[in-house]
Design a protein that fits this description.
198 residues, alpha+beta, Immunoglobulin-like, eight-stranded antiparallel β-barrel, two-stranded antiparallel sheet, 4 helices, 22% helix, disordered C terminus
């Protein structure tokens, strides 16, 4: 009889421990699962300043275009295009601007009605959007940032007649200098890095 009483007491203890142990928080109970769901579905927003405007969003439509050397220049770089509340921001980051003095300006444009291959064959298209000149830094790099206003989007820029971004040699006369780095703008060119497929 004593062993039955001991067994019943042990089972009661285990049952009570199970009930109170699970509801005391922490373990693998119901509260822990809802915390995981809550943190997983929590929406994070980031605040970024683009084109002089603060953008609070998890996704900013942007694309990056590679600029490859033209006319045996050895100059290359990237153009990052980002839709902002203030307009379409075009940021150029160039490398290998060797032989330039610090502060040398390289005109840059978006041309419409042709491709980089056309330009390199001597059939450059007219300038559609002038960009801020790329300025050479001490290490042979150069940057510029331009905001194209008027509600222009990445889709609009990639549609219609073919377009390309061209960075030129320094201006020395009235003629437009040769291109030294070029990148085609098209739906198939470049990498859209956020904001869905473009």
């Amino acid at each position: 009889m004593k062993s039955k009483a001991t067994l019943l007491l042990a089972l009661t203890f285990v049952a009570l421990f199970g009930v109170f142990g699970c509801s005391s928080g922490g373990g693998g109970g119901g509260d822990g699962g809802s915390e995981t769901t809550s943190s997983t579905t929590k929406e994070e927003t980031t605040s970024t300043t683009v084109g002089g405007q603060e953008v609070t969003s998890a996704q900013v439509p942007t694309t990056t275009i590679s600029l490859t050397p033209s006319n045996d220049s050895g100059v290359s770089g990237t153009a990052t295009l980002t839709e902002t509340p203030g307009g379409l921001e075009v940021k150029l980051d160039m490398r290998n601007l060797v032989g330039d003095e610090i502060g040398t300006e390289h005109p840059a444009h978006i041309h419409e009605g042709g491709t980089c291959a056309d330009d390199q064959a001597g059939n450059g298209a007219p300038v559609r959007y002038p960009l801020t000149s790329v300025v050479t830094a001490q290490d042979g790099t150069g940057t510029s940032t331009t905001v194209l206003q008027g509600g222009l989007t990445l889709d609009q820029l990639a549609s219609g007649a073919p377009k390309y971004i061209n960075v030129h040699a320094p201006q020395t006369g009235d003629e437009t200098p040769l291109g030294i780095a070029c990148g085609d703008l098209s739906r198939s060119g470049g990498n859209t890095t956020s904001g869905g497929e473009r």
